[in-house]
Design goal:
The complex is a heterodimer. Chain A has helices spanning 7-13, 15-24, 29-53, 85-104, 113-132, 136-145, 147-157, 162-191, 196-202, 207-224, 233-240, 243-251, 263-272, 277-298, 301-332, 343-346, 348-362, 368-385, 394-418, 435-453, 456-480, and strands at 62-70, 77-83. Chain A contains 21 helices and two strands. Chain A is mainly α. Chain B has a two-stranded antiparallel ribbon. Chain B has 18 helices and two strands. The longest helix of chain B is centred in the first third of the chain and has 32 residues, at 130-161. The two termini of chain B are 21 Å apart. Chain B is mainly α. The chains are: A mainly alpha, B mainly alpha. Chains A and B meet through helix 6, helix 7 and helix 8 of A and helix 12, helix 15, helix 16 and helix 18 of B.
């Protein structure tokens, strides 16, 4: 019992209770929705409890659970969970977005509600598990497992091309992860452990093999992030996925990993060319995450911290954008940009909220996007000057152009949808946001302003972990030379 | 001690035959359990009892029990209920069990015949039906051919070493051979003979037709039983008496394995009949197990070769029987209800069956949290330990390809609408749901299972 009640076990597996309840309940739509919402709210509560137990000044892993799992025939597989400044933030983000997504589906999903909620909660387990797992075997299980519910969510409740999108999503991501599996196996065989802290401490992997291992992991992460040129599954998956699926996909799944640069400009240009609003948001995800990678590769405190914050920002802003698109889709059942125009007059509240979220996604000072992007550019600039891994300040310059392009595509979308006269008759009678929809979006707005105006608590949370990560990295880089 | 086989001969009554069969199997299982930890050879070195044989025997008995469960209602429904069915089944199982403990090449041959001949008959059991007759005939002709290869191989080995008993062969090889080439050729021919049984490419041609034509419970039984027995013999023969020729044989094995993996998976993509799809998928799973066998010549990896192959067979057994149970629940008379399109809408009308089937498909693909994933994980370690990184990559690629056609079935079940016709049968549902639960739950507790497989070492001479 003690084992089950460990905080990290609870926060990971609590949704299982909801799943069991859903399995045995009768198919009643409202009941299923309430069960799922309640479960995800409690999970969020547990993650807040975890936050209160977490000591942010301590860079070590905390609340560690470390148990032997499979220990025969030379295997050394552990069941190990732990949390540090980075994962605590991402877990909070996940558990925070989950109830919001569920609320957003309240009217959107009418078909097989129970199954939908079931898969959704399964997905939450998988994602929280990925952030907390400290054993590579366990990590891989959670990582791969998230594929399954996501596949069903896209495939059953998605748009017209959903089956195609679902299979494409599954095959793409699985292609990446099996390479990672090989790398994990290699590590397990040669280092005799899958436990991450031990692996980091042991070192001693020859340089050229490290290169291959890195490539294998990078392939898996890059596909999920998704990085150019491996991104092509994402717009399909997003467009076809139901809104809640999109939010989670953007908010969390995409961050399950993060590595490398080119995506920024590409994403921005391609999204300008899109006609479908949701596809546009999806492509902008690609370029946002390019930023995150730029920050990570700066390998200094500003860059990495900015990158982590930017991941959270991206989760919030893009998640909010998808929700906004979802609101209008529920009303009109189309997402073609041409179908809208002049919505400001009809739905002023909706327009204002969209404006705030768009500006946050663009990186307007005072909102969350700015803090992350600024910190990343600062870090990348510093790294460029110091002759760090980015080598040149040109990367920073190019990325700054990305910021401008981002402004272009977002403003283009906003203009087309909201400004000018009402172009279509059907749009004249649209209702403004309901209370439920406000309840969904307002918490996100609060966070957008909070991070924008006073980001210190967030930086405090991740700072010690980042410092330690950089020290380890510096040491091993020296050792390699 | 090993004459448990005789226990079986008491049936041929009317309705209680299946019951007696089950009883016989369970009694045998008890006997086998008593053999735990033993390591002896009997009958003048013709048979050996060791951890390996007990593990495999229990696996085969499990297969037998599940087959009886699957068969009872199906046979009545398809008008096939005849007492001989169970007798043949038992003969075949005893052949398989004999195979797992054979330690003389002649006994290997005998066991092969004992397990195959009843299977030929069983494949043709739905007699008036042309497909079933065709299946029986095809299986018989090709099987006889394979036996010929095996026998010729045995003869060559005898020519090279002067004996067919394992321990004498080992001694003769250790003492040096006059004609080592004969030994290599003999080993190659034995590989061909057993390759037929496990349906490795290029000896797989019979599989789809036979699997499709045979009555479905027989197919289910064949898919596990014949394969398990074939691998039992393959592992024992190669690990015990042919390590010395590993240098010559490993390249052959390697290419057979790669061909099996790729051909099985690529052809499965094109199938629209679920039975045929599962047939090709079972070819590809033979390929996966063969991956472990490839590393047999490597001393460091040997231990894991056996353990991971045994574990994979167990994982395969649950997913295989479970999926065949679902197939049978949807099968209608005259081989209708077997197309992919017949499964449309199953996720809506029969959630339990559909979820179970989805779990089996995921287990076949190797997605956690299923036993199939653990099986592949252990298997790939054996391969990597043997130093075959390229082979491991091919195996990964094969899993990826297989994801496509397994998922296609899931897509049809859950994402398309339709009115599937499902036959209500408690035993089928029980087998399907039970196997699905086992696939997931045993994954979490896979340590004891794997340690059991790891202790099932071969008795070496």
């Amino acid at each position: 019992m003690d084992f089950i009640l460990q905080p990290l076990n609870l926060v990971t597996f609590f949704p299982l209770l909801g799943i069991l309840a859903l399995l045995f309940l009768r198919e009643r739509k409202d009941l299923s929705r309430w069960v799922a919402l309640g479960t995800s709210l409690v999970t969020f509560g547990i993650s807040l409890w975890v936050l209160s137990l977490f000591d942010s000044s301590n860079p070590e892993l905390q609340l560690v659970i470390n148990r032997d799992w499979i220990q025969v025939a030379g295997w050394n597989i552990k069941y190990a969970l732990g949390i540090d400044g980075l994962s605590v933030l991402l877990v909070l983000l996940t558990t925070f977005l989950a109830p919001i997504s569920i609320l957003s589906t309240w009217n959107a999903v009418e078909d097989r509600v129970r199954d939908f909620m079931l898969f959704f909660l399964l997905l939450e387990i998988g994602m929280v598990g990925v952030f907390l797992a400290q054993d590579l075997f366990l990590f891989y299980i959670f990582w791969e497992f998230t594929l399954v519910p996501m596949y069903f969510l896209i495939g059953i409740w998605g748009g017209r091309q959903r089956m195609y999108a679902a299979i494409k999503f599954f095959l793409y991501t699985m292609a990446g992860s099996i390479l990672m599996l090989l790398a994990i196996l290699w590590l397990g065989i040669n280092q005799g452990t899958f436990y991450l802290p031990d692996l980091i401490a042991s070192g001693g992997i020859p340089g050229d093999i490290q290169y291959w291992l890195f490539l294998a992991f990078a392939a898996a992460f890059a596909i999920k992030v998704p990085m150019w040129p491996l991104h092509s599954w994402l717009p399909d998956a997003h467009v076809q996925a139901p809104t809640a699926g999109s939010v989670i996909l953007a908010g969390v799944l995409l961050k399950m990993a993060t590595l490398a640069v080119i995506g920024i400009i590409y994403g921005a240009i391609v999204s300008y060319a899109q006609k479908d609003v949701k596809k546009l948001v999806a492509y902008s995800s690609i370029s946002h995450l390019g930023f995150v990678m730029l920050g990570l590769f700066a390998l200094n405190a500003q860059g990495v911290e900015g990158a982590i914050l930017q991941m959270v920002n991206h989760g919030i802003s893009t998640g909010a954008l998808f929700l906004i698109v979802g609101f209008i889709y529920e009303r009109r059942h189309t997402r073609e940009l041409e179908e809208f125009g002049g919505l400001w007059q009809v739905m002023p509240l909706y327009a204002v909220i969209t404006l705030i979220v768009s500006l946050s996604s663009m990186g307007l000072p005072g909102l969350n996007g700015f803090v992350g992007e600024f910190s990343i550019l600062l870090g990348a600039w510093g790294a460029g000057q110091a002759g760090g891994p980015l080598g040149s300040i040109w990367f920073t310059a190019i990325a700054a152009i990305g910021v401008i392009l981002a402004a272009v595509y977002i403003l283009y979308m906003f203009q087309a949808m909201f400004l000018g006269p009402v172009t279509k008759k059907v749009n004249e009678t649209l209702k403004d946001l309901s209370w439920r929809e406000l309840a969904v979006i307002v918490p996100l707005l609060v966070l957008i302003f909070w991070i924008g105006l006073y980001p210190k608590p967030f930086f405090d949370l991740i700072h010690p972990t980042v410092e330690q990560f950089l020290t380890i990295f510096q040491n091993s880089a020296v050792a390699l030379r | 001690m090993l004459l448990l086989v005789v226990v079986f001969k008491k049936d041929s009554g009317p309705g209680l035959v299946p019951f007696l069969t089950l009883l016989g199997l369970l009694v045998t299982a008890v006997f086998v359990v008593f053999q735990f930890g033993l390591e002896i050879d009997t009958f003048g070195g013709m048979l050996v009892v060791d951890g390996f044989s007990t593990y495999m025997s229990l696996l085969l008995i499990l297969g037998g029990v599940l087959t009886v469960g699957l068969s009872y209602d199906y046979l009545q429904r398809m008008n096939l209920a005849r007492g001989e069915y169970y007798a043949l089944l038992l003969f075949s199982i005893s052949g398989m069990m004999l195979m797992t403990s054979a330690s003389d090449l002649i006994v290997v041959f005998l066991a092969l015949e004992l397990l195959s001949i009843p299977l030929y008959v069983l494949a043709a059991f739905a007699r008036p039906e042309a497909r079933s007759e065709e299946a029986g005939m095809k299986y018989f002709l090709l099987g006889a051919f394979a036996s010929g290869f095996l026998l010729y191989g045995v003869a060559l080995v005898y020519g090279a070493t002067g004996s067919t008993a394992f321990h004498e062969i080992v001694a003769a090889v250790a003492g040096g051979l006059d004609q080592p080439l004969y030994l290599v050729l003999g080993a190659g021919l034995i590989l061909v003979g057993l390759g037929f049984k496990v349906a490795a490419v290029p000896f797989h041609m019979w599989t789809p037709d036979v699997y499709q034509g045979a009555p479905t419970p027989v197919t289910a039984f064949m898919a596990l039983g014949a394969k398990a027995a074939g691998f039992a013999a393959l592992l024992r023969v190669f690990l015990v008496i042919f390590p010395s020729v590993s240098q010559q044989l490993t390249p052959v094995l390697l290419w057979i394995t790669i061909a099996t993996l790729l051909v099985g998976n690529l052809l499965a993509i094109a199938q629209n009949n679920v039975k045929r799809m599962l047939a090709y998928s079972s070819i590809s799973h033979a390929g996966f197990i063969l991956m472990a066998v490839v590393a047999y010549g490597n001393d460091a990896a040997r231990f894991d070769v056996v353990a991971s192959a045994l574990f994979y067979l167990l994982a395969f057994a649950f997913a295989s029987f479970g999926s065949w149970a679902v197939v049978m629940a949807l099968e209608q008379r005259e081989a209708r209800g077997l197309e992919f399109s017949d499964y449309a809408g199953l996720g809506r009308t029969h959630r339990g069956l559909a979820i179970a089937m989805a779990i089996f498909m995921l287990s076949f693909t190797g997605v956690p949290p299923t036993l199939g994933f653990a099986g592949k994980f252990f298997l790939f370690r054996a391969v990597l330990e043997g130093g075959y990184v390229g082979l491991a990559i091919v195996g990964m690629l094969a899993s990826l390809i297989s994801a496509y056609y397994y998922l296609r079935l899931v897509v049809v079940m859950f994402m398309q609408d339709g009115e599937p016709q499902v036959h209500r049968d408690r035993w089928l549902a029980l087998t399907a749901v039970g196997s699905a639960l086992a696939t997931v739950v045993l994954f979490i507790f896979s340590e004891p299972l794997f340690s059991w497989a790891a202790q099932s070492v071969l008795h070496l001479f």
